[in-house]
Structures are given as C-alpha cells and as structure tokens.
C-alpha cells in the first residue's frame, strides 16, 4: 500500500463525513484523513455520520448511521423496494440534480483518464425526459423460490446473491409488470422447477419481456436450463389465455453456469420470431437476443443527436459497428452515400438486413463478425469508411478495434457510450492515433440510475 493510501480505518469505525461528489455507481464520495470513502445513498453537500463496512487498498466503503445535514436535492424514493433492489441508484435524488450529476460523471472521467484541458473539452448539459418513469421496454427478471416454495422474480440486491421479488417496477412499461406478475402465478400453478445455481438443478432461470411502445407488440422469452420443456403446450396456452395480445413466445436454453441471461439457442414456440418497434417513420424487427435501446422515447432523441453531430454528407461511406438491429445507422442513412454494419449476433444482423430493406434503404450492407475483422476484410475488398459509428457495451471498445481504426484512419468517429470511464479511456487511446474530441452530448437514457449515455464526435487531425 502506497504512503498516501495508508490508513488506520477499520470496519465498524464511525466518523462524520461530508460528501464531495458522486461516484460512477451513484454513491456519495467523501474524504476522511485523505482516504476516499464511498457511501451509497448520499448526495454531494450532505453531512452524515458513517460506519466503515469495508477497507480496500485505495478506498473504504461505508453506510449511513445518521444523516446530519440532508441535501436540498434529496427526495423520497417512490419505489417500495428501492433500497433493497440493485436496479436504481438515484431515486433519492431530484431529477434536476440527477441530470447535473451525469454531466459531472463525464467531466470527472475525462479529467481522470485523459490529459485534455477542461477548457478545451465541450460537454453539454444532459438532455433529460419530461416523464422519467415507466420508460424501459425490456425486463430481465431472475426467477427464484422462497423457503416456503413461493415463486419470486426480480433482481439481485447490490453486491449480493439475494433475489429481491419485484411486483411493480416503476421504470418498466406497465404491461411488463403485469406480465411478470402473471408469469409467477403460471410457473407456480404448473409446478415448474426453479433453477438452483448451487445445485445446478431445476428448469426455469429467467423471464425476459420486451414491449414495443409504438406498435403494442410484445415478446416473452422463457430462459430454461434444458432443451426439453415437457409442459410447453400448457404453458403457452396459459400465457395466451391471460394475454391474448402476445406477439411472440420463445424459449432460450442456457445450461451453463454463467452470469449471462441468454444461452446460445433460442426457439420460437408461439407467434412471430420477432416483434416490430417503430421509431419515427422507421420500423425495426427485434428478435429476443437482439440488442435494442431500452428507452424508446429517448432513443429518438439520441439518434437525432448522432445524426446532427455527425453531419453526414451524401458522399460519405458510413460504418455502423456493433450495429445490433441496425437502428442507429438506418436512422442516419438518409444523410450518407453508403451504409455498412456488422455484429457478432447473427439474429441481430438478420434483423438489420430486414429493417434496412423495409425502410427502403438500398445502400445498406450487413455482415456477421467482429468489427475489426470485417473492417479489415472490407479494406482488402476496396472499401474504406469515412465515418464509423460505435455503440459498444460498457466495457468499451476492444483494443484490437482501436488499433484497426488507427490503421484505417477514418475521418470521423461517432462514439455512443454508456460508460464515462471506458469512453474517456478509449478517447485517450484514440488520441494517440490523431483523433480529437469535437464535443460531448450526454443524454439521460436511464433516469433514476447512475448510468449516462453520451454521444462524442471525434475527428482525425492529419
């Protein structure tokens, strides 16, 4: 342990703490004897007596014992399981302050991971929602069982394996909550066995429900541990009896001991294999395993920002990397000369091809594979991109892709990020290849949580 991190703090110790800023997971951060202390549930400016729960090498974790000076931005969380559930982190913070916090998280990330002077970095105010509730179009609920054999479904509490039963999630579409409540009853009535991770026995693992806001189509995917589902017909009949409007019912088989929800095999057992969602004038086909933004209302805002900030010209060749169902590229394609995309999920690529065709876009081409492999393949075939759109997972861009961008030298990179830390780290790496940030626009895609989406345009200095 380095000298500046040495501390005599130990679990159980109590002391007063003033919170200075938000952490990346929405916790309050303060300093005690120059040691960083993370305390969930606190807001910058608040003063509290805290108790140390864990001491790490470079920081400590604590919990609130007594809130001495509450923030003017503190509000009463409307969700009854907010403190137990790990899904939301900022329901105790006014929405106006949430938006400010998300801009601050971006500022902190760029300050920590890059050498860009703050006065040379333009980060705009966060664009929020008029109604920051019931905005999510997809839920992934883990299924469990209590000691008295009651079937429950919900999310794991933060940093634990304790499953919190959720009957009404106030950031989910209302239909999603209704479906999940009924599914618990159906699973219980049919006496379907619940998967036990410790014993690696049982059938039902997860319930995945996706609702299309504009078309009212919706999709149920039951994740099970085995290929056989003996009560499949009666299960489908019960779901259709309760919800005659269901568009698609699928089974996904995940036999592995993994934190991933989906396994590799998905089979439609009733209705259509995909559902249709509409954004503006464009329709998108969504298979169960296809990625699509979770907040349809803000997705239109986000994609309009991408289109405006990118400023595509009619001669531009644009690549939509990590394309999913092709949503971002298709939205912006009217401004480009040629659109190409790739994804590692075959079902998503199939959706992207169909979505582009139905949108009447003749200049779109999609392939299955990693972005770095496909980009190099296309270069050998004579195609090079003027602009590349990337919308990677929270882990950020693969290092190989960054190196590939450095080799191919596209004029512009439009980076849609859901993680300020990896965005800043990637921006610093791309800076070594001559890319500079034009500006950053945060968008609140996930109200009540600490997550922030940001559109960053980077251009290459020749």
UniProtKB/TrEMBL annotation:
<keyword id="KW-0949">S-adenosyl-L-methionine</keyword>
<dbReference type="GO" id="GO:0070041">
    <property type="term" value="F:rRNA (uridine-C5-)-methyltransferase activity"/>
</dbReference>
<feature type="binding site">
    <location>
        <position position="391"/>
    </location>
    <ligand>
        <name>S-adenosyl-L-methionine</name>
    </ligand>
</feature>
<feature type="binding site">
    <location>
        <position position="293"/>
    </location>
    <ligand>
        <name>S-adenosyl-L-methionine</name>
    </ligand>
</feature>
<feature type="binding site">
    <location>
        <position position="343"/>
    </location>
    <ligand>
        <name>S-adenosyl-L-methionine</name>
    </ligand>
</feature>
<dbReference type="InterPro" id="IPR030390">
    <property type="entry name" value="MeTrfase_TrmA_AS"/>
</dbReference>
<dbReference type="InterPro" id="IPR030391">
    <property type="entry name" value="MeTrfase_TrmA_CS"/>
</dbReference>
<keyword id="KW-0004">4Fe-4S</keyword>
<feature type="active site" description="Nucleophile">
    <location>
        <position position="418"/>
    </location>
</feature>
<keyword id="KW-0408">Iron</keyword>
<dbReference type="InterPro" id="IPR010280">
    <property type="entry name" value="U5_MeTrfase_fam"/>
</dbReference>
<feature type="active site">
    <location>
        <position position="418"/>
    </location>
</feature>
<keyword id="KW-0411">Iron-sulfur</keyword>
<dbReference type="InterPro" id="IPR029063">
    <property type="entry name" value="SAM-dependent_MTases_sf"/>
</dbReference>
<dbReference type="Pfam" id="PF01938">
    <property type="entry name" value="TRAM"/>
</dbReference>
<comment type="similarity">
    <text>Belongs to the class I-like SAM-binding methyltransferase superfamily. RNA M5U methyltransferase family.</text>
</comment>
<dbReference type="Pfam" id="PF05958">
    <property type="entry name" value="tRNA_U5-meth_tr"/>
</dbReference>
<protein>
    <submittedName>
        <fullName>RNA methyltransferase, TrmA family</fullName>
    </submittedName>
</protein>
<dbReference type="GO" id="GO:0051539">
    <property type="term" value="F:4 iron, 4 sulfur cluster binding"/>
</dbReference>
<dbReference type="InterPro" id="IPR012340">
    <property type="entry name" value="NA-bd_OB-fold"/>
</dbReference>
<keyword id="KW-0479">Metal-binding</keyword>
<dbReference type="GO" id="GO:0070475">
    <property type="term" value="P:rRNA base methylation"/>
</dbReference>
<feature type="binding site">
    <location>
        <position position="322"/>
    </location>
    <ligand>
        <name>S-adenosyl-L-methionine</name>
    </ligand>
</feature>
<keyword id="KW-0808">Transferase</keyword>
<feature type="domain" description="TRAM">
    <location>
        <begin position="8"/>
        <end position="66"/>
    </location>
</feature>
<keyword id="KW-0489">Methyltransferase</keyword>
<dbReference type="InterPro" id="IPR002792">
    <property type="entry name" value="TRAM_dom"/>
</dbReference>
């Amino acid at each position: 342990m380095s000298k500046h991190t040495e501390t005599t703090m130990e679990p159980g110790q109590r002391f007063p703490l003033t919170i200075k800023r938000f952490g990346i997971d929405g916790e309050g951060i303060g300093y005690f004897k120059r040691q960083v202390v993370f305390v969930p549930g606190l807001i910058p400016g608040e003063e509290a007596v805290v108790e140390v729960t864990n001491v790490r090498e470079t920081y400590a974790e604590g919990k609130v014992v007594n809130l001495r000076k509450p923030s003017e931005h503190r509000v009463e969380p409307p969700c009854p399981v907010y403190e137990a559930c790990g899904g939301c982190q900022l329901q105790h913070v006014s929405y106006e302050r949430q938006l400010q916090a998300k801009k601050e998280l971006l500022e902190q990330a760029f300050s920590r991971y890059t050498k860009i002077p703050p006065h040379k970095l333009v980060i705009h105010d966060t664009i929020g929602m008029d109604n920051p509730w019931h905005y999510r179009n997809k839920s992934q609920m883990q299924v469990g069982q209590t000691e008295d054999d009651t079937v429950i479904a919900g999310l794991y509490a933060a940093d634990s394996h304790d499953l919190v039963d959720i009957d009404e999630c106030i950031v989910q579409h209302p239909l999603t909550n209704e479906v999940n409540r009924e599914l618990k009853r159906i699973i219980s009535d049919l006496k379907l066995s619940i998967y036990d991770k410790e014993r690696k026995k049982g059938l039902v693992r997860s319930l995945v429900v996706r609702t299309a806001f504009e078309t009212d189509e919706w999709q149920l995917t039951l994740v099970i541990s085995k290929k056989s589902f003996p009560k499949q017909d009666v299960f489908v009949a019960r779901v259709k009896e309760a919800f005659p409007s269901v568009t698609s019912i699928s089974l996904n088989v995940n036999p592995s001991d993994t934190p991933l929800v989906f396994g590799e095999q998905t089979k439609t057992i009733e209705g259509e294999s995909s559902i249709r969602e509409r954004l503006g004038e464009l329709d998108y086909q969504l298979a169960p395993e296809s990625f699509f933004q979770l907040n349809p209302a803000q997705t239109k805002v986000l994609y309009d920002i991408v289109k405006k900030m990118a400023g595509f010209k009619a001669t531009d060749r644009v690549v939509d990397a990590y394309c999913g169902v092709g949503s971002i590229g298709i939205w912006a394609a009217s401004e480009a000369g040629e659109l190409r995309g790739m994804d590692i999920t075959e079902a998503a690529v199939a959706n992207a091809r169909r979505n582009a065709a139905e949108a009447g876009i003749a200049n779109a081409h999609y392939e299955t594979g990693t972005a770095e492999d496909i980009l190099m393949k296309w270069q050998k075939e004579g195609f090079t991109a003027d602009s590349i759109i990337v919308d990677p997972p929270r882990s950020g861009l693969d290092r190989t892709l960054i190196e590939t961008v450095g080799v191919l030298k596209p004029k512009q990179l439009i980076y849609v990020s859901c993680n300020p830390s990896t965005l800043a780290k990637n921006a610093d790496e791309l800076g070594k290849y001559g890319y500079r940030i034009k500006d950053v626009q945060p968008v609140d895609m996930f109200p009540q949580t600490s997550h922030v989406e940001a559109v960053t345009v980077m251009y290459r200095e020749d």
